[in-house]
Amino acid sequence: MSCGEPHETDCSEVLDHLYEFLDHEMPDADCTKFEVHFEECSPCLEKYGLEQAVKKLVKRCCGQDDVPTDLRAKVMGRIELIRSGQAVPEHEGSIHGAVVREGGAREVTTADARGAAAEG
Asked: Domain of life, per the record (predicted)?
């Protein structure tokens, strides 16, 4: 998605890192760049608003659910392996069908999450 207007920070960069912005997981300088972009770009601001609303809804509806300790440990272990660049073994209580995309990002489908919940 792009509004067709030139921006200092490209729309694709903003949308690729939107969840990092929403979760406050990026440096302040990058946050400032995104805020400036949202002031200039109504399509990206609209997408931001939509994702922010979904995040609040999920928190309100599911925020009180306790995550099983062993499932949390498995997920955190996987995240650390991915961050360190190590190969992730698919046979050790894996989240079935996870796809590693270029750049190391992982895409997990709803069916994968169900499989992980059944295992945990």
From this structure: Bacteria
In degrees and rounded to multiples of 5, residue 107 shows phi and psi of -115, 125
By the 10 Å C-beta count (0-12 exposed, 13-18 middle, 19+ buried), 50 is classed as: exposed
Task: Identify the pLDDT of residue 116.
Answer: 45
Q: Is the pLDDT of residue 23 over 50?
A: yes
Q: What is the pTM of this model?
A: 0.52
Pull the structure tokens for residue 22: 């929403």
Cα separation, 3 vs 14, whole angstroms:
12
- Domain residue ranges in the chain: 11-62, 69-119
Mean confidence (pLDDT) of the chain: 76
CA 117, distance to chain mean position in Å, is 19
Which residue blocks in 3-119 are alpha helix, DSSP H? 11-16, 18-22, 28-40, 42-62, 69-84, 110-119
CA–CA distance, 56 with 33 (Å, rounded to integer): 23
The candidate with the shortest Cα–Cα distance to 81, out of 65, 94, 62, 63, is 94
